[in-house]
Specification:
With about 650 residues, the chain is of the alpha/beta class.
Length: about 650
């Protein structure tokens, strides 16, 4: 995958610029104000992968100063699982050396003119290493740049990493190869491993969606020519040639002093390529993508702009995820996937992109719709801002985007990022309101990403229900108030339902919610000691003991099995001892009541879940082990609310 990117003098990126792209997850979005250079990143990568020798869109400074002092450069940093490459290959051995150097880089190793920009990369690298303890054993990491030396000359290099002398010295010392040998092999490897598919904001939809187009064939992972060749028996081609030769011979005999032949000595035979091209021309040329709806088909060129945009994502989703024998790993880049869409459709569009990325496809988007920050639980957003005469890019982890935004505000002394949280909530609220006033769709708004995962696991394939984690009880309450404020006067227009779910926190704050719109409800999870079950309480109910989070509402046997897995993985003595004390004391009660832990054990369990990322990891493993998917009673109550007319 593309981990990060250095750009120099490409379009609006003047001088050297560093853009962090990923934290190891496959979803990455680029956000920022108009004209800041979001689309330029996707375009630059398209040039890098698909047309490095074409004319580039340089920064205007190149025309003024010339190439020699301002060489436009596109330099991605790749992270590749070692399992992708055969160990017996030279490039595997060479990457062991290059990767080890890269993992251990410090900014002081770079040339003095590059130290500032290199330190940004080192910061991202250190964060990745801290979150991936086995990074050196699992992944290769390496830079590979393309530079424009002149209008006609393009060269691959290590760019600013060339100043790190260890690359050249260690490769020669261990393998007696030059840096160019590695660079050439690395370029071949990148083309072998990755396929970059770029869908710009303005495209010819009819052409892009035709099955024989380059884009569609790339999405399919195969070519129409390959499909035709598999369908045609080689014996048929030989028979056709034999029969045609016989026919020409008979004609020549009949004509006597005349014959049909090619002027050249070598006579052309009919081959599979000829047949394939004619089949593609005659069979596929007239076929266009059609939208099926209520028994009718509408050609894509007759659809609205929004429907066309949705069709592109639907094609990508269908072809990429379902093609299991793909030779290369796809990097899908889409500029403004929300363009021309009705507000109510934005969320579902990004849900499809999340689905694509969850299938292991690195998905890069440039967007103005900030609602995705709450809709996509795993991935990154790169916020790009103008800073004086330069650009500054900040990486935001979507699983903790509020904390990262707070950190960025502190680092930039309040200058960045501009209103990003407000835009996130506004875009999301508008999308949900537009949805519930136009269709019978249910929405569940919960606090954290682990809540979202459990709820989606239990509700199963409910295609008309969306689940969103918003990042804490404060924001769930905020959204609930916004919904009421927006829909108070138009309640008769509401067709869908919204259910907001809160935890019962230790620091309980009584919240009296409005109840004037029956299609919108808010409740809090609470383990009832008297009934030994999880209930949905009104937010103004005074019964707030014991504190209850979703981890307290799980099936106890599966909870113990999941905890045992992590206590072994973490190799923590205290957690292992705690796992021995975990027993189901009360049958059919939720985990928080059934395990009957003492005060000390309860504190240890809280410490376990306070481990960074543990709630997310625990929820993934629990859902994996819970194959029966027995939904708790309170989930069924939420489903009944959403389904009730």
């Amino acid at each position: 995958m593309i981990f990060s990117l250095f750009l120099r003098n490409y379009k609006t990126y003047r001088g050297w610029n560093f853009i962090p792209v990923s934290n190891g997850e496959h979803f990455s979005a680029f956000v920022g104000e108009n004209g800041v250079g979001k689309s330029s990143i996707l375009e630059a990568l398209d040039v890098y992968f698909n047309s490095p020798n074409s004319d580039w869109n340089y920064n205007h400074s190149v025309a003024k100063s010339g190439f020699s002092s301002t060489e436009p450069t596109i330099c991605p940093i790749f992270i590749v699982p070692k399992s992708y490459i055969n160990k017996s290959r030279n490039i595997y051995k060479w990457l062991e050396v290059v990767s080890q150097i890269t993992w251990q880089l410090e900014f002081q190793q770079f040339n003095s003119s590059h130290i500032n920009i290199a330190s940004e990369f080192i910061k991202q690298l250190d964060r990745f290493k801290a979150e991936n303890k086995n990074h050196e054993k699992t992944f290769f990491i390496f830079p590979l740049a393309v530079e424009k030396k002149s209008q006609r000359e393009t060269k691959f290099s290590l760019s600013i990493f060339h100043g790190v002398s260890e690359y050249k010295e260690d490769l020669f010392e261990q393998f007696e190869i030059g840096l160019n040998d590695f660079i050439n092999e690395a370029r071949e490897l990148v083309l072998e491993l990755f396929e970059y598919i770029y869908i710009p904001s303005e495209i010819d939809f009819e052409h892009y969606t035709k099955i024989e187009s380059n884009t569609t064939q790339s999405l399919m992972g195969t070519t129409v020519d390959e499909i035709v060749r598999k369908a045609v028996d080689e014996k048929l081609i030989k028979e056709i040639n034999t029969n045609l030769d016989n026919f020409i011979g008979e004609v020549s005999n009949y004509l006597g002093t005349y014959e049909y032949k090619k002027p050249a000595k070598k006579q052309t035979l009919f081959n599979l390529t000829h047949l394939s091209s004619k089949i593609i021309e005659t069979y596929f040329e007239s076929k266009v993508l059609n939208l099926k709806s209520t028994g009718e088909s509408t050609p894509i060129f007759h659809c609205s702009s929004g429907e066309k945009r949705k069709a592109i994502i639907d094609l990508a989703s269908a072809f990429i995820i379902k093609s299991t024998d793909r030779r290369r790993h796809v990097i899908l880049a889409i500029d403004e996937p929300e363009i021309s869409l009705h507000t109510s459709s934005c969320f579902s569009q990004f849900e499809k992109l999340r689905y694509i990325s969850s299938g292991g496809v690195q998905t890069l988007i440039a967007t103005h719709w900030y609602g995705f920050m709450s809709a996509v639980p795993a991935g990154t957003a790169t916020y790009i801002a103008e800073q004086d005469t330069d650009k500054k890019a900040y990486l935001i982890d979507l699983s903790r985007f509020r904390e990262d935004i707070k950190y960025i505000k502190e680092e930039s002394k309040g200058k960045q990022p501009a209103s990003i949280e407000l835009k996130n909530i506004n875009d999301l609220v508008q999308s949900i309101i537009a949805s519930v006033t136009s269709e019978e769709r249910g929405w569940i708004i919960c606090e954290g990403s682990s809540d979202k995962r459990y709820i989606e696991h239990w509700i199963g394939n409910e295609s008309n229900v969306n689940v969103i984690s918003i990042g804490g009880s404060k924001y769930v309450k905020k959204l609930y108030e916004y919904f009421h404020l927006a829909l108070e006067e138009d309640r008769q227009e509401i067709k869908g339902k919204i259910f907001c779910l809160l935890d019962t926190d230790k620091k309980y704050e009584k919240y009296t919610s409005r109840t004037s719109i029956k299609q919108i409800d808010i409740k809090r999870l609470h383990n009832c000691i008297e009934k030994n079950e999880t209930t949905l309480k009104n937010t103004n109910d005074n019964n707030f003991f014991p504190p209850t989070e979703i981890e307290d509402c799980l099936e106890p046997n599966k909870f113990i099995e999941t905890f045992l897995f992590f206590s072994n993985v973490l190799d923590n003595v205290a957690f292992k001892e705690l796992s021995k004390k975990m027993k189901v004391h009360i049958a059919n009660a939720p985990s928080g009541l059934s395990l009957n832990l003492g005060h000390i054990e309860q504190k240890q369990l809280e410490s376990f879940f306070d481990t960074d990322g543990m709630k997310t990891s625990f929820s993934k493993k629990y859902c994996e082990l819970d194959t029966e998917k027995n939904a708790p009673v309170w989930i069924n109550q939420i489903k009944e609310f959403l389904a009730k007319k």
